[in-house]
Amino acid sequence: MPDAQQFVIVGSALVSDLEEQDIFIKYFENKRHQLKSIEHIDKFKAEDYPDLAHTLFIVRHFDFDPGSIQYQNNRDSSTRTNGMNNNNHIVNPQLKQLADDESEIDSVGYTTDYDDIDEDNTQTNVSGYDGGYCFTSLMSHKCSVMGSTALLQNIRQLKSNDQGIRMIAPERPLHNLAMQDILITFSGISSKFEAQQLLTLTRYMGAKSREDVTNKTTHLVAGNPRGVKYRRALELGLSIMNTSWVRDSFRLAQNDLCFEANMPEIIQHYKLKPFHGLHLAFLGFNESDLKELNTLTQSNGGFVVDTANLSCTHIVVDAISGFDETNVQLLSSINQTSNIHVVYKEWFWASLEMEGKANEDSYAVPGFKPQTRRSSRRASIGYNSLSNVLSPMLDYSRSPDSMSCLLERQVQRAQSVSHLVKEQQDLSKVSARHRACLELIQTEKNYVRILETIVNLFKLPLENPDINDPILPATDVKIIFGNLTPIYEVHKRMLNNLETLIETDWNETNCIGKVFVTHSIDLLKAYPPFVNFFEDTKKTITNCDAKYPRFHAFLKRCQSKIECSRESLTEMLIRPVQRLPSISLIITELIKRTEDTNPDKKYLIEALESIRRVMNLINEDKRKTEGQIAMFDIVNNIEECPPNLLSALRRFVCKAEAKLLFMNSESEVIPSKSHKVVLFLFSDLIEICKIRSLKRSHSYRGSKTYVPIRRGINTAQAIRPSNKKEHRHLDELRLCDIMNIYKKCESPEMSDALVIQARPSPKYDQNFRYYPFIIDDEFVSRATFIERLEESLCLCDDPDQVSDYVPNDNLPPISNDRIDFGYANSLVSNMEKSRLSRVLSMRQSLLSPSVKSQRNLNHYHNN
To answer: CA–CA separation, 785 vs 7, rounded Å?
Structure first.
């Protein structure tokens, strides 16, 4: 289309509004000769515009016959059905305002383009000139009509003000660009009148439309989740929208130049719900599951009814195709000829996962195919779901065909029983070693099958989703499954070797243990990363299950498959944690049943040692990992923590709360009353910290300087959370400096005391340092702490520190005269000094000018 050569603005009010827009003024600064305006539409004469093919008429409102009763009824019904009155789910402020103000939607297109209104609210224009009449008059003369919003949006999209604005065809007026570059297809709109209105609105917003869904289609506007177009749109991963999306987008775009109908929050809000208009009945579920299913059905546009309800469209059965037959009797009363879809519960979760109604034929219970009223004129398009769907194998009906199927299953069951009896008779003839090997390979097959299910059913679909919108972020997928693949690969290779040795070419001298010895290094590399971070895996699954509804539906759908046998992902992922102990027990039993002359004996013993070596490494790594995490927590919770406390060579052992004893001025040995201490025992030192009181307000309510803080005055300061740490560094005692540990004392007041004698310190000029403590911990006893301390002294991890300490339980009790309380008194003095300095600083802050002003203001309010 050529560029417009002339712009005619209709209505004096619109001229005033446009002249307030900076982009409009700048664009037409040098193009004033192209601008014209008419005050009233009755003054319009086509002969005044000889170049009508290059003239754009700018109006504020368009007309699409919104005042009709039929349109109003359809709009109200669609609004209620699509949940527009539920403001709790509206996250966009514009959407909330739109839903709150229902009256504003009643007359889209009928507001006036003129502002000449008398005091009695009647228009002075002849015949009540309004936007609809203005628009209709211009269209009757085959004029090119553009909305003021579209004009400003076109100007914004130009790279420079020297560029021209493209003309539009007279038959395609353009109100705004909210749906620019959008290709729409309509489906399931029952009323032709409503369908024509929606089509007109989308064209007013710059959208294009096609009759069929193609690869170029971007959105499907559907009145219900049915039909070939709906299935095709799901297959292509298109956004399927409800009808309110079109109407409300037109309303929201009228005065918002930045509004786009395909904004993520708009798309998410106006998506057609998977169960929109469907009536679902649930059969065979327990009470807790039924409560969740009812909530999800209603929140996704559906209704919950009984199976006998005539409006019922779907019956969802708590059964697994080919696995579970517990609800056969419950389905016997269902009318097979009724127009009801009877589906497995996997259909329900698949629909929620793909955010669209899944194809019932892929999940239908055999024998309950609904009767359609008329055959479709269109060819059925194949539907590909998000995952491989098993062919249903159950037949719950009581028809002759189903009875024959039931007889066939009974025959198969009888044959399987006879086959099992035959196998048991054959096993009675094999050796004890062969039976143990058969048990080993059977458990290995089951284990590999579970791993294969996790990889194929869970891991691969999450890593490679069929649509552009992933179910789970890639980082979370890696946390859950990142360490599983090496375990799966090594056990597949082991299973192939075991099948050859045990099932294909069995011989009593086959070296079964050699298989485990050969793969011992691979097992050593594969298992520790998975087992050590299994708790993190479980937490990630739990958090993602609660955070992402589609992931929750994905887990439930997979759990509904025969491969999972109703087991959850977490229950299946725990199998690698349990596998190595299970293999260890089976190999131990196999060793007992293998003769000493058998060449496999030495390989089995070596295999058992390698398996135990892997388990020990896992336990050691787990212990170190937990110790490192504990060290980080401790360091981050100590004020004035020494920077060298965090070390890769240091590991945390235990902690114990204690009372530090000191001697007062009257030569009495008493515990410190001001603060308790905590002893953090590490592999090479003891970190002694003071326990800080986090509940103390430091307000000194009874003092003269106390200033009560009123609510509403300086509230940010009043409710500011405390960043205080629980502990404060007091002293550090290296284990290599410890000379003796006195477990007994002569004086009665120190009967429960523990005295540690250490070498002199540069900070203390006496011969020895004495640390008298009374262990006062709820979880760690005095005897336990002494035991772990002595173990750490004997097993010091740091080669640079050599301890001279020798455990001696025969040390005589130490008397108070031999204990030098000077160092302990200095520690208590430091605690008192720090406490006094905090009190003084708090009082100084309470007397600061700002607080004084606040106190005066409080006094004013109180009086």
So the answer is: 91
pLDDT reading at 373 higher than 70 = no
H-helix or E-strand containing 341? Answer: strand 341-344
Q: What Cα–Cα distance (Å) separates residue 543 from each residue in 480, 536, 669?
A: 12, 10, 53
- Nearest Cα neighbor of 186 from 220, 214, 213 is 220
Residues 663/665/670/672 CA torsion (nearest 10 deg): -90
CA 409-410-416 angle, 5° bins: 85
Of 811, 741, 825, 801, give the one whose Cα is nearest residue 775: 741
3 state DSSP class of 113: coil
* Alpha-helix runs per DSSP H in 724-821: 782-794
Q: What is the C-alpha separation between 675 and 831, in angstroms, rounded?
A: 8
Q: Of 544-548, 651-655, 735-739, 803-807, where does mean pLDDT reach its minimum?
A: 803-807
Q: Report how far apart, in Å, the C-alpha atoms of 657 and of each of 690, 744, 789 are.
A: 10, 19, 14
Is the distance from CB of 344 to CB of 377 less than 8 angstroms? no
8 A C-beta contact, residue 728 and residue 692: yes
pLDDT digits (tens, 9 = 90+) for 209-248: 999 999 899 999 999 998 899 999 988 889 999 999 999 9
User: What gap in Å lies between CA 616 and CA 631, rounded to an integer?
Assistant: 22
Q: Nearest CA to 687 among 728, 748, 723, 649?
A: 728
Q: Are 721 and 863 in contact (CB under 8 A)?
A: no
Residue 798 three-state SS:
coil
Distance CA(92)–CA(79), nearest Å, equals 17
Count of CA atoms in the C-beta half-sphere (13 A) of 74: 21
Phi-psi region of 227 (alpha: psi -120 to 50; beta: other; left: phi over 0): left
Q: Please give the average per-residue pLDDT across 433-445, as a whole number.
A: 93
Q: Do residues 320 and 531 make contact, with C-beta atoms less than 8 angstroms apart?
A: no
Q: Which residue reads 């009875």 in tokens?
A: 403
Q: Tell me which residue of 12, 1, 32 sits closest to 161, measured CA to CA.
A: 32
Tokens linked to 736: 């290599």
What number of other Cβ atoms are within 10 A of residue 640's Cβ? 11
Question: DSSP letters along 21-56, please?
Answer: -HHHHHHTTT-GGGEEEES-GGG--GGG-TTGGGEE
Residue 184's DSSP bridge partners are 209, 219
CA distances from 520 to 608, 614, 653 (A): 10, 8, 31
- Output b/e per residue, 722-736; b: 16+ Cβ within 10 A: eeebebbbbbbbbbb
Distance set, CA 443 to CA 438, 450, 501, 586, 709 (Å)? 9, 11, 15, 10, 69
Q: For residue range 379-422, list pLDDT tens digits in order.
A: 333 333 333 332 233 333 333 343 444 445 455 555 554 554 45
Q: Name the helix (H) or strand (E) containing 677.
A: strand 677-682
Tokens at residue 139, please? Answer: 């269209």
Give the strands of the sheet with 55-59, arranged side by side.
35-38, 6-10, 55-59, 144-147
Higher pLDDT, 246 or 863: 246
Helix ranges (DSSP H) in 668-753:
715-718
Alpha-carbon distances of 363 from 283, 343, 752, rounded to whole Å: 15, 5, 72
> What are φ and ψ of residue 7, in 5° steps?
-125, 125
Categorize the per-residue pLDDT at 112 as very low, low, confident or very high, splitting at 50, 70 and 90.
very low
Are residues 34 and 28 in contact, defined by beta-carbon separation less than 8 angstroms? yes
- Cβ(98)–Cβ(251) below 8 Å: yes
Cα dihedral 456/459/464/468 (nearest 10): 120
Cβ partners under 8 Å of residue 5, min gap 6: 34, 51, 54, 55
- Closest to 572 measured CA to CA, from 438, 481, 471, 489: 481
Using left for φ > 0, alpha for ψ between -120 and 50, and beta otherwise, residue 586 falls in alpha
